[in-house]
Amino acid sequence: MVTTHNLGFPRIGKHRELKFALEKYWSNAISQDELLQTANALRKQHWQNQDKLDWAPVGDFSFYDQVLDMSFLLGNVPERAKILSGNELDSYFRIARGRAFADESDCSCIQAGEMTKWFDTNYHYIVPEFNQNTRFELKAQHLLAQIKQAQKQGIKAKPVIIGPVTYLWLGKSKDETNKLDLLDSLVKVYVQLFDELAKLGIEWIQVDEPILVTELEADWRVAFRKTYDTLANKSIKLLLASYFGALQDNLSLACGLPVDGLHIDAINAKDEVQLVIDSLPNDKVLSLGVINGRNIWKTDLSATLLWLEPIHQQLQDRLWLAPSCSLLHVPVDLDSEQELEVEIKSWLGFAVQKLEELDILAQALNQGQATVTKEIASNIDAIYTRKYSSLVHNSEVKERLAKANDELGNRQSDYKSRAKLQSEKFNLPLYPTTTIGSFPQTLEIRQARRDYKSGALSQTNYIQVMQTEIKRCVQAQEELGLDVLVHGEPERNDMVEYFGQQLSGYAFSQFGWVQSYGSRCVKPPIIFGDIFRPKPMTLDWITYAQSLTNKPMKGMLTGPVTMLNWSFVRDDQPRSTTCLQLSLAIRDEVLDLEKADINIIQIDEAALREGLPLRKSQWRDYLDWAIKAYRISANSVRDETQIHTHMCYSEFNDIIESIAQMDADVITIETSRSDMVLLDIFDEFDYPNEIGPGVYDIHSPNIPSVASMVKLIQKAAQRIPDKRLWVNPDCGLKTRHWSEVNLALTNMVLASEQLRKGFL
Ligand code: GLN
Ligand code: ZN
Known about the structure:
Elements: E1 3-4, H1 17-26, H2 32-49, E2 56-58, H3 66-73, H4 79-82, H5 88-97, E3 115-117, E4 124-126, E5 129-130, H6 141-152, E6 157-162, H7 164-170, E7 172-173, H8 183-199, E8 204-208, H9 218-231, E9 237-241, H10 251-256, E10 261-265, H11 273-279, E11 285-291, H12 301-315, E12 319-323, H13 342-345, H14 351-367, H15 373-388, H16 395-403, H17 415-426, H18 443-454, H19 459-480, H20 497-500, E13 504-507, E14 514-517, E15 520-522, E16 526-532, H21 539-547, E17 554-558, H22 560-565, H23 575-595, E18 600-604, H24 619-634, E19 642-647, H25 656-662, E20 666-669, H26 681-684, E21 690-693, H27 706-717, H28 738-759
Parallel strand pairs: 1-12, 2-6, 5-7, 6-8, 8-9, 9-10, 10-11, 11-12, 17-18, 18-19, 19-20, 20-21
Antiparallel strand pairs: 3-4, 13-16, 14-15
Helix pairs in contact: 1-2, 8-9, 12-14, 18-19, 23-24, 24-25, 27-28
Bound molecules: glutamine and zinc ion (ZN).
Zinc ion binds at residues 436, 606, 646, 648, 731-732.
């Protein structure tokens, strides 16, 4: 008999119930009790969704982030959060987002924990902090309570936790402390935790160690052995879970650890499954992640079964089946979708459907395929229609792509010559100020977009509302004294969805939300077919905005790599092919903007970095096609047209040469949360073009002071010539309120003025 389980279920709720409850709690609209009730109800619902599984995950629920939960569980709470009023949940939110409540007095605000991407996903976690005073202490009450809740509901609970080695690896040492020196004391707390779990009758624990799919230094490999030697032989069984890639050089390490089972990602590492089977001692369970937890396509069940049957024969009861990784990265339930084209919908599966597929696979293996003939037949049908559908294939797109060569990505002249022309044309002051594009998405804006979509608002009226908003935004920027303006992006619900909606080859769900960080969710569009742009996508808005001001208006586009990385991508052709199709579509838009006399164009590549493969050995290949795609989209403009690009979380030390190859005239990046240390690279690498290191953190509602921003820019100026520095926030302002934005940008402009004076 094969055993089925799941590594994690999306916690945000089918209709984002958790998001709304959190936001109400933060604005004092509901009590903490009410928030806890929502959490209870969601967990209950999600376990019901998983009741066919042999083992359901517990501990995958989180109010903000599972890594931050782990920090609290381990008693590793930054000192600055401990001294303040309120209870533990309030401290938790302060670390997550700088404050517990929207109206919290300033003295209760603290620096939020650093946030970074979870491996190669678009999920962000709060980075654990370590220093010489770090002490761990078990605080498992919340996890234990959730287990009791699951058990009461009759669920076979398998707690999921982040393993000690990955936990340390994910964190940052805030002083000279070597993280691995903390391992022994950390592992002790895990031992205590396992004892507590055993007392609750827990049989299996899933211990996530996804760093096993990355290149590990020798000391980290040693840490694995030491850790699991200590954790072994407890009265509880450990399922060591790796995902997001292949084990490769860590394969024998992973197979040799004294645990009771190993989970591997059989989607991304299908080729090494046989080797794992051969290497794994035969008293251990092997869990194969055979359903893609990162994508929304139906699994080809008959092909999977064909492949699994001999493996099942060989492993028998030792075979477990699961999705490849936690389903956190896919939406909850396809059944909610009413508007997807029927044919396209028939090709898809979200979390709930993926678990149904898992059940069908297990039933076919355990009871014979005859027991699921109907299900398999309908699956074969879906896989076949998708493969040959005319919705997917467009010969014109394929032909244009075949002709696209690297030449298309070259600017006419080098940066120096361009910069001269541009500086004559724009005549900007030193330390020019700008923003990253979006301004607050007010209730009215969102209401108008909704009404337009539902038909309650006519197109004419919708345009009017948006234009009013653009006008307000342009006026505000003029009053603030910004130098390069933006239209504010009111018409965009999301930077990828907005463009996807206007491109052929894209489909959209209504409720396909996936958590990005905290209460923030994104609804990744679905690239199902060949991409092309039927007509201009941003031209009317941008030219309208430019008509309102004499200052330069920056046209705002999302770049091809970000479009790709933030979409659910087709799995029937290489990602690079899809990316180049996107790049040709964006290129058309860039050229149309330029023709309409928009002379500064920003092409956001917020997600370029997160598309990097987890293993460095595969970076070159990705960067080659990604940078090529970006260049093709951006670089065919005239010399005097200034191209900006923007990147979030730009820890790009290791890819700085590729960033330079993009040859954008200006890049704006995230740096404020890291106190500009991300700029250290400029000591060694002479970045040739202009750069706007974000001077304040837009993820926090705290208002940055003039002095703090002056200081940051001065720090930047130690490494980058003033002439090439821009002053801007570190990302778009859509999630903020106008009251915050006005204060923050007033200070930002003052900071820039102060710097200019200092320079004179
Ligand atoms: N132009 C986008 C905005 O300002 C960029 C967002 C992002 O980088 N994530 O919202
Ligand atoms: Zn950004």
